[in-house]
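PROTOCOL LOG
Step 1. Enter all chains and additional molecules of the complex.
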Amino acid sequence: MSSLTNKIISENFTREKALAVLNDKEIEKVRELVICSAFPLSTETTENLCRKARKLFNQELFIDVKVDPGLIGGAALVWKGRYRDYSLKAKFEEKQDILTGIYDQFIQDRRSWLSPEH
Amino acid sequence: MTNSSKTEEVGLVRSIRGKIALVDGFPTIKVGELVMGENGAKGYIAGLFPNWVEVYLLTDEDVEPGQMFKKSGGFLGIKAGDNLLGRVINPLGESLDEQPALKDSPKDEKIPLEENALGISKRRYIKEQFETGITVIDTLFPLGKGQRELVIGESRAGKTGFLLDIIANQKGSGVICVFAMIGKPLSEVRDIYKQIKDKGLLEHSILVVSTSDDTAPMSYLAPQTAFAIADFFRKKGRDVLLILDDMGIHARNYRELSLVSGRAPGRESYPGDIFYQHARLLERAGCFADGGSITALPVIELSLSDFQAFIPTNLMGMTDGHLLFRSDLAQQGQTPAVDISLSVTRVGSQTQQRLQNAMSMKIKETLARGKQFELVSSFGTELPEETKLILIQKGQIEELLIQRPGRPLSLEMQTVLLALPFTQFLKNKDRTLVKNNYLAILDLFEKDSTLKKIRDEVFKNKNIEELIGLLDGAKDKLEAGTILPENTKKEEIEEEDRPQPIGTKK
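Step 2. Run joint prediction.
Step 3. Record the structure below.
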């Protein structure tokens, strides 16, 4: 983590401040955005992403970044109880019939190429 | 941002309390929907609150805050079909026995666990007797098809053995037996399954099992699953016997869930709606207009020193009678160990033949008078002949009410047997004569044509006196077929067949 982040945490994460946050009713109104990524993100990428998300949604957010290698690539978002999948895995699932059709055709072509009559 | 290719509802775990997860999200979810966590944890929605939904966890996987839950499709329910017969399943319908996993068949139906009980207009008057084959039940505390009779008693009083005997005696009768074991130890489940299997009872039985190491929500669902299966067969016009063992554990599991989820505790820390939870279950039993019936035998253990405990009195209030089992009677060799003075059936009498009813009243009167006279006789005073006769008859009746293992009796045989103490054949004879000749008497009524005719046509008699008259006429045949007290060798052989008190080593 960057030294700037460490400094911020060490100065602000005291017992009184943590309890003040937990008791703050305003905290309950802050929504949570979960970003599921296929691979671990660097601190810089995470901070950029969070900055852009806050700007896009135009409100205070709790952002949670999770790693899910099953997504293969891309990301998925969870916002207000809805999971929106923009990952490569979802694309593959969407095109599953086309992809398996191409694969089956390839196998068939290989078999016919390797057959004794050919 | 490009359009999403896939959108679904999810929830994120906020906190865990025992086996209850508070989940944020799921904007349009309904109570009863099934959900699954990232690590395969299964649960269902039990409550909807402004800021979270309550998920009851059904499996043992660890759930942590921040974990995501997705809908796994559908509501709480199981797939029911004839392939359930002979199987042991958990409350989710998954098989637990060593047989292959349950396969789906086109005839299977997905049935919900929760269903409202049918109203009055959909029910029939209970007029058919549910035959258990056990003399003390069928004659003194008869059950009707569709009745709810509470089986209540102390630990080690023989309740489970009694229930297994009833299941065994339904073999070949077309009655389907659903046995729900709620929160029972694995060893006990294994033992009961082995007994049912060894006696060849699996073909007409289904076991719904939640063990003591299952989660509290799983044990909470067990009776609902059992009722759902019973309803499935009842709708096909079948008669179903449903045993719920034991409702006290169910109540304790529901109490645990309610306390953990923060609901206000009531009497004995049970939630305020515990009566409703049990009543809405038991109301699903009954005798229905479209054919079929569900006869329910809920079981609860209680200590006789605390007869006014909360849950047992609740259950007594929502059933049609109760059978009280006592461990001291079991230790004396009385099988089943039912306390005749404290047991009740509110519905069964209307299902009996007139003669059976009359016999039942006569037996109870004799036993009650005999009990009173026993108190007087203990002072050692000289008793009048009539009093001595009552005491002798009481002893003989008690011997006749002891059920021999593996010998269920027809209603006709029970009636004839219980008339014998009032005949010349057993007049002033010691109870040991009955004890030593019980099986011989049963065989006589099977083999001798005169006695067989008396037995088969017993309900044609207008009253007990007419029946007694017929039996007096056949006194010679009865005496010829029974063993006199001098013949000790045969007595020892018959003694082995008599049920032994609990704890006796053979």
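Step 4. Note key features.
The first helix of chain B runs from residue 135 to 140.
The radius of gyration of chain B is 27 Å.
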